[in-house]
Each structure stands twice: as structure tokens, then as C-alpha cells.
Amino acid sequence: MDLDLDVPVWAWVGLGAVIVVMLAIDLLAHRGAHVIKFKEAAIWSAVWVAIALVFGGIVFWAYGAEAGTAYTTAWLLEKSLSVDNLFVFALIFGYFKVPREYQHRVLFFGVFGALIFRGIFLGVGVAVVERFTVILFAFGAVLLWSAWKMLKDDDEDMDPSTNIGVRMLKKIVPLKDEYHGQKFFIKEAGKRYGTPLLAVVAAIEAADLIFAVDSVPAVLAVSDEAFIVYSSNAFAILGLRSLFFLLSGLLERFHLLSKALAFILAFIGVKLFFQAGHEVISPTIPHIPTWISLSVIVVSLTLAIVLSLRRPAPPAEVEPGTGTDATTDVGTDTTTDVGTDTTTDVGTDTTTDVGTDTTTDARH
């Protein structure tokens, strides 16, 4: 949808000021390491949603219903797509065994980086679309491919140990295996080392860059107005941390959400094809109005949540032998073998292998 808003510089400055102030308040409110409970997460989620909706009301008032609807649709679209991020965040936290009281700090810096990188990607995307409208065909194809991958549940096979962010970080900073509170860096013998917490931030940032491949084309299908696309993305991303803690432990219950998100991505991809055809091929090709996109998103998410609760997923079957071997690679190769290779010869030799080789002679 083409919107040509005359957004003054002070509006951009005001948007930036709101984001910085809210980040500062959030950081001060969570300056001490503690576990984010459901009630606290619910309150903060309500705060972020309220701020986003108030800003949307300002857009409605200042620029009209068309711009307001575009903002609301883009915000809700990004908010819904971010749910898929939460599954990956949970996977990363589980792999690196991040203590729950440190998870908010990791997500804070992850969100901070996401705001910067997403702004860059959206700025480039808007500029490219303005000059080369035909690129919308490519964006549509990307979304259809992403929808297909989501339907196949490819994220379930994601291995955090191969995360490109972690691999690049290891080439720059030597990493320790032990957590040191909320510190990202420590010094030992005059040498600076990164902690596993730093590796987790790198993994989160890399994951968000991958998700940007979906979200940037998706939001550009709603609007190519820079102020609309960035503000909607920013407010959706700001609420990502509280949403994670709010839904933590409940993600598996909403087992149909991934199907709904795949459908939404596919719908937006088709919308991009119609939009590109309308602008590049012929004006007679219809384009899908923004209010229809908003309706599809709301209905799809609602149905997925309701049906997930009414028809719970069957319990996952655990294959025999799983859950015994655990390997965590953070900076160095660390292998823990607990209870797998155990040989006991009563009255003679007893050998127990628990991470290191320990031999006890119990004959006497």
C-alpha cells in the first residue's frame, strides 16, 4: 500500500526518544537479576501493548484511518511473527542452560540490537522497493518459501551449536564455559574472556537476523512508508521480552500457532504478488486492501489459539536412550557423559566415567 506521509523530523526524534526512555525504564526496573514471574510479565506485556496502541491512536489522529490501519496491521503482523522467535529463544536458552534470572538481561540486549539491525534492513527495504518495485515478486517468493518451511517444522531441527553468531564470536573473543553472574566479559591473568552469556546474546542476534528475512518483506507488503514500518516493528520488538516470559512454559500448548503463522506468511506472500502485479504489470490486477490483511491475521491467530486449547497436542514420544548424553560447546569442547558408560565388576574393579576418568579399586 502506497502511503506518502509528510512526517516531520521532530516526529522521528519523538519516536526515538520514546523508545530510548522505555528501554531505560525497563533496564532500571530489571537492573537486579531475578526470575521474571507470570504476573510481572503480564503487567509489562500490558504496558507494551498499551504504548503501541496509544501510538497507533496518534497515527490515526495525525494521518487518518488509512495510515492508522496500516500501522495496526504491521504491528500485529510483526507481533504474531515474533511468536516463532520465542520457540527459538527457548531452544537457545535450553541449550546454553541459561539461568532464568539472567534471561531478561540477554533478551534486553538482544532487543536493543534487533532495533538497530531491523531499522537498517527496513530502511534498505523501503529504498529498494521505491526504486525497484519488481523486487516485490522476490519478496513474495521468500514469504511463500518461509511458509512452506514453517509448515514442515524445520525449526525443530535447529542446532544452536551451529549458530553463525556464536561461531563468529569465537573467532573474535575466547569464551569461557562458566557463567559469572550477569557479566558478559571477565579478565583472567590480564586476558579478556567472554562468558556464555555473551555467546547467548550473539545467538539471539543471529536468530533475529534470520527472522528479519521473513518479517521485513512481510511488513513491506503492508506499507512502504518508513515511519509506519519502523514504528510498528519497534513497538512489536519492544514487547518481545515480556511476551517470552508471559508465554514461557505455555508455548507447547499453542501447537497450532506455527500453522497459523505459516498461513499468514503465505497470505502476505500472495498479497505481495498481487501488489507487484498491480504496479508492474497492469493496474487491472487487484490489490488486497490492508483491512483484509488485518482481518486475516486476527482470525488466523484466534482460531489457532482456540483450537490449540480445545485440541491439545498428543504427548511427544521419547525414544529409548534419549536424555542421557548432553554436550555443550561454548568456547571450548566440553562433553559430559553421565550414566552412559558404566562398568561394574563386583569384588574386583569398579570404573565410573563421569566427565573424567576415575578408577576405584574396591578389592580390599
What does this structure look like?
The structure is a single chain. This protein has one domain. The chain has eleven helices and seven strands. It has helices at 9-29, 38-63, 65-95, 103-131, 135-151, 164-172, 196-222, 226-238, 240-247, 257-281, 290-310; strands spanning 185-188, 191-194, 325-330, 332-337, 342-344, 349-354, 356-361. The chain has a three-stranded antiparallel beta sheet, with no helix packed on it. The protein has a two-stranded antiparallel sheet with strand order 1-2. The model is unreliable at 317-329 and 331-364 (pLDDT under 50).
Describe the protein's topology:
Layout: H1 9-29, H2 38-63, H3 65-95, H4 103-131, H5 135-151, H6 164-172, E1 185-188, E2 191-194, H7 196-222, H8 226-238, H9 240-247, H10 257-281, H11 290-310, E3 325-330, E4 332-337, E5 342-344, E6 349-354, E7 356-361
Antiparallel strand pairs: 1-2, 3-4, 5-6, 6-7
